[in-house]
Amino acid sequence: GAVVSQHPSWVICKSGTSVKIECRSLDFQATTMFWYRQFPKQSLMLMATSNEGSKATYEQGVEKDKFLINHASLTLSTLTVTSAHPEDSSFYICSVESGSNYNEQFFGPGTRLTVL
Amino acid sequence: RKEVEQDPGPFNVPEGATVAFNCTYSNSASQSFFWYRQDCRKEPKLLMSVYSSGNEDGRFTAQLNRASQYISLLIRDSKLSDSATYLCVVMTGGFKTIFGAGTRLFVKA
Description:
By secondary structure, chain A is mainly beta. Chain A is built from no helices and eleven strands. In chain A, the strands form two sheets. In chain A, strands 2, 4, 5, 6, 9, 10 and 11 form a seven-stranded mixed sheet that branches. The N and C termini of chain A lie far apart (36 Å). The mean pLDDT of chain A is 91. Helix content of chain B is 0%, strand content 54%. By secondary structure, chain B is mainly β. Chain B has no helices and eleven strands. In chain B, the strands form two sheets. In chain B, strands 2, 4, 5, 9, 10 and 11 form a six-stranded mixed sheet that branches. A five-stranded antiparallel sheet of chain B has the order 1-3-8-7-6, with no helix packed on it. In chain B, strand 9 (84-91) and strand 10 (97-99) form a beta hairpin. The A-B interface holds A 1, 32, 34, 36, 42-46, 49, 91, 93, 97, 102-110, 112 and B 32, 34, 41-46, 49, 87, 91, 95-102.
């Protein structure tokens, strides 16, 4: 499957700051990447679909001005959590779609965000 | 009703046991189905896609029943390393992906 990296793997920040998370597809040109969030003991929730060269598609209830997504190239998508608050503390995971007929997704290792 | 439902478990089984997980989905237009495993504080890893005809990969067998809208995962000869959370994943058209809440499995020596 595709190899996906994320950076940073964990971050602790003060309330009110902005945090940028990078998602890279290392061996695959990803037209489409996905951003998920996972709270403790809960499943992954799709936040948005990131499309190379165009605006991201956000899921209902996800504020696009709060979670800025930029998919500037076929190998990089970034998620910026703006003016982070403690309730934004979560595990953020990106994935790339495989491009096969079955559309499997391969996930990055995730970024654990803690907002103090 | 949740779009994808799984028994949260936990399932506690001894090594060598056979264990089965079921997952139901509500959208009859769902097109693709997967099982992922997720270890604690790690990202999900694709275990297997679920094909209409069912498929097997070593000790793992997945089945799809479109009429009843459920998929299943069977693990034979459980190993300690199988301990994880197993996520049922359903995809509808346009890449919309829904994750189940996961079923926790503990395999004991």
